[in-house]
Write a structure and sequence with these properties.
The chain is α+β, with helices and mostly antiparallel strands and 171 residues long. The chain folds into two domains: 1-31; 33-157, no CATH class. Helices cover 30% and strands 29% of the residues. The chain contains four helices and eight strands. It has a six-stranded antiparallel beta sheet with strand order 1-4-5-8-7-6. Strands 2-3 form a two-stranded antiparallel ribbon. The termini are far apart.
């Protein structure tokens, strides 16, 4: 009889640990980004500049630099944006947690591929090796996320960084 009790306790403990790990991964680390801004890198200055936007919703987590996601709308036209701000060629939208339902990475990727959305550089090296990318649809819907750049890939795989990588500031 005591073997069954021990087995049941182990099973309960495993279920509780699995549930806790799931909750921490999907919900626990994320915080709402209350005072978000949307910035694109200017072709003239090379510096990020805030654009006109409304309806901002954002999430972020301090557990990883690539957990940032945001949704917004802008009245600015794609034509004006592409003449003013730097486009981003290697955009790869990263999945958001299912509960953050305004951000649909596969739909954004499809729109970037078919040309109904354009990716812009929000800010290069917002954190060393991490770029902020902003995709804006022709109808004004916008999405932002952070993804690893070439310098970040080299940092994480241990290969030597090139001259194009900035100096890394250590905390």
């Amino acid at each position: 009889m005591s073997g069954k009790i021990v087995g049941i306790l182990i099973l309960i403990a495993a279920i509780a640990m699995g549930g806790g790990a799931y909750y921490a991964t999907v919900y626990g680390y994320y915080d709402d980004v209350e005072a978000g801004s949307v910035e694109l890198t200017s072709l003239v200055s090379g510096e990020p500049e805030e654009i006109i936007f409304e309806g901002f919703e954002g999430i972020d987590a301090n557990s990883s630099p690539i957990r940032y996601r945001a949704c917004f709308t802008t009245p600015m036209s794609t034509a004006m944006l592409t003449e003013t701000y730097e486009t981003f060629e290697e955009a790869e939208p990263l999945n958001a947690p299912g509960w953050f339902d305004c951000f649909d990475a596969p739909a954004i990727a499809e729109a970037l591929a078919d040309g109904s959305a354009t990716a812009f550089t929000g800010q290069r090296n917002i954190q060393y090796g991490i770029d902020r990318v902003v995709a804006i649809f022709d109808d004004g819907r916008g999405y932002a996320w952070q993804q690893i750049n070439d310098c970040g890939d080299k940092l994480y795989d241990g290969s030597p960084k090139g001259d194009e990588c900035p100096e890394r500031e250590l905390d």
